[in-house]
Structures are given as C-alpha cells and as structure tokens.
Amino acid sequence: MANIDHAADQGATGGATAICGDARHIDELVSPDVHGRAALVLTSPPYGDSVHGQVRSTRDTGRPNVEKFDHHYSRDPANLAHRSLEDLMAGFTEILTGCRKLLKPGGFLAITARPIRRGGALVDIPTMALAAAIDAGFTPWERCVALLARVSDDGLTARASFFQLVNTANARKNGLPLHVPAHEDVLVLTKR
Questions:
Q1: Which of 60, 98, 118, 135 is deepest in the core (most CB within 10 A)?
Q2: How much is the pTM?
Q3: Residue 188's CB: how many other CB atoms inside 10 A?
Q4: What is the three-class DSSP state of 153?
Q5: Domain-by-domain residue ranges, the chain?
Q6: Do residues 1 and 18 lie in contact, with contact meaning Cβ atoms separated by under 8 Å?
Q7: Phi, psi (degrees; rounded to nearest 5) at 183
Q8: pLDDT tens, residue order, the chain (192 aa)
Q9: Highest CATH level, class, for 2-190
C-alpha cells in the first residue's frame, strides 16, 4: 500500500489496489465487478528465498554476522515458492489465467523475471514465464530489459542486491565463474 500511496502523493492518477493472498485463487480474492476493467496487471513469479529479503549487518545490530529476514514468501509448503519448477510454472499459469480475467480487452500484462540458479544450474525463468503467459491465453507484445542500476550525472551504476553479491562471491570462491545479474527481463503481453 505504501507504494500506491507514494504514487498518489507524486501526482499519479487512476486507481490501484494491493491484495494479499494466494493468487491462484484470484476469483475469490477480487470482486467479480472488477473483472474485465483493469488496464494493467504487473506481476512476477515467486522464486523462493534465493533472490529476496532484507539484511542487517553488525553495524546495524551490534551483533556479529549478517542477519537475514523477510526472506520467505511463507512457511506454508503449499506456497509456490517451495515447489518444484514444474509445479511453480503450472501454478504461475493458473495465476496468469486469473489475471487475464481482470484485464479489459487490449489490456496489458507485465511480468518481471530473471534467471535463477538451482543446484548450480542456470534456470531461464523469463522464458518459462513467457510460456506460462502464452498458455494462459496472452499474446506477446514486447520483451524488454530493465537494468538494475542507479542513474546519476556520472552514468549508470550497477545496483546488485546484497544477496546477489554474496552468492556470486561465494560461487567464485568455489571455482564457479558467476557474474552478478545486471538486469531483469520485462515481458509485456496483451489480452486480445
């Protein structure tokens, strides 16, 4: 809700709603009078605890080591973030099918996604998410790259997360020549 309030404070027009719940059951979460009215749905697949969360360092807490928190989607084993990739994408297709019901004809679905590593192997989540959206009845419109960077007078400065930096450093120590991700894919699809 804070992001919606911030957008309104900055002069954004239109309306937005944030709803917390299992998006596979979007019909139960969103009132039927909203179906077919949204111009845009923005989403991202759940990845599990490998790519998000908050940290506090010794400097912040006065205690040794780094403390990680807010890094679980939930502790519910039925949550998609805790499932196999096959189950994750099947569930994401369910979510996108529900999202399609919310959009008006010509409305857009935007998905942000990035590759992840599981068991040391790179998993192409953006392409899997695109296939899920097509399976849910969407038509591809555009595939873009969103740089994970800060813009300043001096140009672009990469803005990797703490976890990306640590995971990359640990992999390099173990002889795996990884690089820090510098972008996310933005998949834009439409409802015809």
A1: 98
A2: 0.79
A3: 16
A4: coil
A5: 2-190
A6: yes
A7: -155, 165
A8: 788 889 889 998 887 878 888 889 988 899 899 899 999 999 998 765 555 566 677 777 777 777 776 666 667 777 777 788 899 899 999 999 999 999 999 999 999 998 887 776 778 999 999 999 999 999 999 999 998 888 889 888 887 777 677 777 888 898 888 777 788 999 999 998
A9: alpha beta
